[in-house]
Amino acid sequence: MSKTTKVTFAKLHGLGNDFLVTDGRNLSADLGELAKAMCERHTGVGADGLLIVLKPRNSNHHARVRFFNADGSEAEMSGNGIRCVGAFLTKQNPRRKTLRIETTAGVKELELLSAPSKAKKGGWNFRVNMGQPILDPDKIPFIAGKHPAPVIGFPLRTASGILAATVTSMGNPHCSIFVEDFSSIPWREVGQEIERSPLFPNRTNVEFVRVASKNEIEVRYWERGVGQTMSSGTGSCGAAAASILNGFTRRAVKVRTLAGTLEVSWPK
């Protein structure tokens, strides 16, 4: 960066997905470059992303947030990130039990289920209404050709062969690949390749999903603009939606990540 910028921030993580959160109302820096500098794990603070909290455009909402990946690109939404924003705002006003936060992917509502206290250690626990998954290829966006919506079992050509992909969006694009086990495929290399596939005009997040039972899946994540992460909120929702669309699971799913378990449900 060409000049020094003083930034007050908090560092939080949502199930191992770590973020720097700051009040951006008085920031004048190039936010993409700021994100790259702060998120760099050797010369910066280190994080998967930078979350900029701003004044909402609608007075009935509590905040607006912009999500920046570690590479400086801007994302539409982050499920773990918005929970970190929820903790950031709740710390400022503990009396709030619900939050309405504006994102590029729409207004998301958070319900506070529990918070840390002197008697109870731990973190904040939120339920987030993520909205309906987007299944229209044009809106994801995904170049599906003549493949009908929803995009299930799309034959995606990769250096590791043709893989059956289920493509969805949670406000940001997701490509889910089902595997028998994670050692059967070089999933990091494949994730990096799929992220930049020309079939995804805005690039994509990639999930590798192992179905453990009708109620549980295990996932590895390659996130657009970041790389491998320990977990992902929207990625968990995308993987759960893909599992439901394929008939592999019921509509309430436990998602096991490298950092713990998320609970995702998609009501009929």
Structure description:
This protein has 268 residues and is α+β, with helices and mostly antiparallel strands. The chain has four helices and 16 strands. The strands form two sheets. Strands 1, 2, 3, 4, 5, 6, 7 and 8 form an eight-stranded mixed beta sheet that branches. Strands 9, 10, 11, 12, 13, 14, 15 and 16 form an eight-stranded mixed beta sheet that branches. A hairpin with a 2-residue loop joins strand 9 and strand 10. The chain starts with 9 loop residues before the first strand and ends with a strand. The model has no long low-confidence stretch (mean pLDDT 96).
How would you describe this structure in keywords?
4 helices; 8-stranded mixed sheet; globular; 268 residues; alpha+beta; 16 strands
Given as residue ranges, the uncertain stretches (5+ residues, pLDDT < 50) are none
Mean pLDDT: 96
Helix tally equals: 4
Share of residues in strands: 35-45%
Biggest sheet features: 8 strands, mixed
Measured distance between first and last alpha carbons: 49 Å
* Strand element count: 16
Helix content bin: 10-25%
What general form does the structure show? Answer: globular
Return the structural class: alpha+beta
